């Protein structure tokens, strides 16, 4: 695991954006695995800046998103987040974007996403970290799912994500998420950690001694190419 300890979130976001744009330059037909959330916002701002400066071209790149809420609409969907923070600002062809569809039948959409992962392997997977150790929406549990699936969100995740909704009652209770196997099959993984609430689960990962399904992010210790960017 490669660890990058920064002075600030801004520095973390700048470094992460540089890793992403560097990967696209090195492999123009890259498949990027993308994340949403506050952590991703500054990273995408950096990617958009590089695109606007003519440093990187997304015309052959493809993306797939980690997760999406079930039973929400705009502006709360992760599709909307991605359009506002990244897709509409870069030259990625719309047909190169894959994300679970909050308007679709969830079971059918899980099948569609599973078929996608049967035929495609992510080159670089960007991850944020949940305060309870979740990655994507793989919540702590006795057993974790390998494939894309429907996840019931834990009360702590619903509470943590309520800040992004008009009120807590509007936070969806379920989501579609890539499974742990989908994530661990990525050729390389970039985990960016923002915020004090994640110190405990980050500490367990940095400790590096054990994996536990009660801290899904700790399974990244089993992956051969992971970079973790976090603040002091
Ligand atoms: C959310 C999402 C994740 C995200 C993580 C961190 O619940 N399901 O995909 O990466 O939690 O979010 P944030 O960056 O807002 O702290």
Summarize, please.
This protein is of the alpha/beta class. The chain has seven helices and ten strands.
Strand order of the largest sheet: 1-10-9-6-2-3-5
Arithmetic mean of pLDDT: 97
User: Which architecture per CATH?
Assistant: 3-Layer(aba) Sandwich
Count of separate structural domains: 1
For this structure, the CATH topology is Rossmann fold
Shape verdict: globular
Helix content: 25-40%
Summed up, the helix count is 7
Heterogens: 2-amino-2-deoxy-6-O-phosphono-alpha-D-glucopyranose
Distance N to C terminus:
17 Å
Taken as a percent bin, the fraction of beta residues is 15-25%
Query: Stretches where pLDDT falls below 50 for ≥5 residues?
Result: none
Task: Return the CATH class.
Answer: Alpha Beta
Q: Which structural class is indicated by helix and strand composition?
A: alpha/beta
Task: Please tell me about this protein's structure.
- 33% of the residues lie in helices and 19% in strands.
- The strands form two sheets. It has a seven-stranded parallel β-sheet with strand order 1-10-9-6-2-3-5, with helices on one face. It has a three-stranded antiparallel β-sheet with strand order 4-8-7, with helices on one face.
- It has one domain (2-231): Rossmann fold, CATH 3.40.50.
- Helix 1 crosses helix 2.
- The protein has seven helices and ten strands.
- The chain starts with a strand and ends with a strand.
- It is an alpha/beta fold and 232 residues long.
- It has helices at residues 9-26, 38-52, 78-85, 106-119, 155-161, 180-184, 199-207; strands spanning 2-6, 31-34, 62-65, 67-70, 97-98, 124-127, 149-152, 174-177, 188-193, 226-231.
- 2-amino-2-deoxy-6-O-phosphono-alpha-D-glucopyranose binds at residues 35-39, 66-67, 128-130, 136-137, 157, 161, 194-195.
- 2-amino-2-deoxy-6-O-phosphono-alpha-D-glucopyranose binds next to helix 2 and helix 5.
